[in-house]
Every structure is written in C-alpha cells, then in structure tokens.
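Pasting as-is:
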Amino acid sequence: MSTRAAASSPPAVWVDLPKNPAPIRRPTIVPVFLPHAGCPHRCVFCNQIAITGQADGDPAPDLPALMARFLKEKPRSPQHVELAFYGGNFLGLPPHRIQSLIAAARELVREKWIGSVRFSTRPDTIDAQRLGWIAGSPVGTVELGGQSMDEAVLAASGRGHTARDTALAVHRLKRAGFRVGIQTMIGLPGQDNRSALISAGQFATLEPDFVRIYPCLVITGSPLAADYRRGGFRPLSLDAAVATCARLWRVFARRNIPVIRMGLQASAELSDGAHVLAGPYHPAFGHLVFSALCREALVRGLRRLPAAGRTVRITAHPRRLSQVRGLGNANLAALTDRFALAGIRISSDPDGPLHRLGIALE
C-alpha cells in the first residue's frame, strides 16, 4: 500500500466528494476565553471552565499583554489578525463591560495589532439595542450558538431560546453588515439523525457565512454529567458521530457554506481524560470525518469495477492522501477486506482537483 507519483494510464473510474465550498479568508485568531460570562443560565452540556482550563470568566482581561504573548511582535498584516471572544455570551455581558472590551479592541486596531474582532453570543441577544452597541466598532464577525432548530431538542438542552430566535438573529446581523457563523451540535438530548439533518438544512437555508459542527460530549461538572451517571443520557459513539457529521458536512457543502471546524479544538484539558466523562471526543475528529467521506466515495467507485483479487490504484490530490488512507491506514484495510483486493497503491496527482478521486485496476 505504497504512495507514488501518478501513473500515466488514466483511472478507470472517477468519484467525487461534494466540492469544497468557496474558501474564506482564515485570519490568525487570537482567542480570549470568557467562560460562562454573560450566560443567563447553564446549558446541560456546558462546562466552559473544564473545556478552557480557566478558573473563571473575568470579562476584563489584559488584552495588550495577551496580544503581546500570543503574537510576540506586531504583525506585518494586522488586517489578517482577529481578536476573538469565546466561551461566553458576549452580548449578554453588562453594557459597560461590552463597551470596555470594544474600546480596548479599538485601541489594538489603532496600534496595528489586529484588524477586526469576532465574538460568540446567543441568538436571543441580537436586538436593535445591542446591535447599536457594536455599530461602528471593529467587530466584523458574529458567531451564533444556534445548536439546533428542533424546539424539543433546544428545550431538552436547556438552551432557553427558540429556532425563531436564531433565524431572526441571522437576518438582523446580515442586514447590519456582519459576517455570520452558526455553531451547531449533534448528539444532543432528544436529538436523532433526522432531527440533526433537518436542523442542518434549516441552518443552510439561513445562508450563514460559515458553520462549526460540534458533537455533544459529557463534560465533568455539566448538568448532563449527572444525567449520564444516572443512565438517563447516552452520547453518540465516535463512529456514529463521524457518520452524522459527514452527512451534515455534505448538506452545507452542497449549499456552498464552509464548515470551518468539526469537533472541539484539541486541548490538554480535553485530552487528559479527566474532563470528558463520555462521548465522541477525538483530537483529529475533522480528519476522521473527511476520511469517512473519502471512504464512502471510494466504495461507490469500487462497486463499478471487477476489483476482487486485483490490485487497485487510487489517485488523489496530495492534500487528500492522508484522508484517503484514514488514520493508521484504516480506510485501506477496510476497502481491501470489503472488496477482497490483492492490494492498494496510492498515487499523488498535484494537478488534479481536490474533490476528485481516481480508481484503476492494475
């Protein structure tokens, strides 16, 4: 199962992944975590203190010192650097704290440390008054914690807002000229695959600028942890979460909506085993999803060929090679077993499209 340059003979079969959505500029993000700051109550799945490793949600960090530590020196292109307030409900903070943080961010723009600001907030904080607080500020992007468009799932998760709140928030933010991201979750209490897919379709209809997909984990200290210990909640397995996330990725890709993250950012807190009681956490969750998408495409192609007992050559763009193989060559082993192959050779084609895989018999 070697990797080599693309062979001269063309593949017998081409198979396509959904084409990658139009790329968006990925700025350098300087994160500021405000665990639970501004949150009116606790969602059942949430414990930001465990996830971030921070002891509190002080909404008045020393931003210049943090910037200097994170970047070391002023960037040559500050317009590509973004200060991001995560982990809390930014527009739920008291007005004077919001204004203080915005003023500090504006000074960082003036000093050419950053070009803009983004923050995450609840959909039910997007109203005319709060939009007025950030009008004319360096804020360019707002991320909404929509999570689901299923009212029963939102209630079971303790979200405290409705699907209509999310739809209205997106429309208001777009009308005000902000870029809008939506954070959605899979494996929530009361949610099945159908609910997750319907929600994804409804989120896509809102035409956000990007989406993040997170699997629901059982985090120590969260209300869900007690329910899990009582046997009242069963999280998705890793395989089920990967399969569901792959289906959601296809929903957004077909609408040309970038999915900029799948799975929580790997951290020492999440990886040490002390903070995640159960659930589909993996430090390379996004890689697993793309590997599953590649495997599904290759299965479709191999079904069209008399491949049993033959060696198969798979041609892919260099950026796809590790996803074609899967972690620990898991995809190659699964395909070899399923189709009784003599072997698989991998060919790199740097001139080929990223979304296309070629299959040939040798």
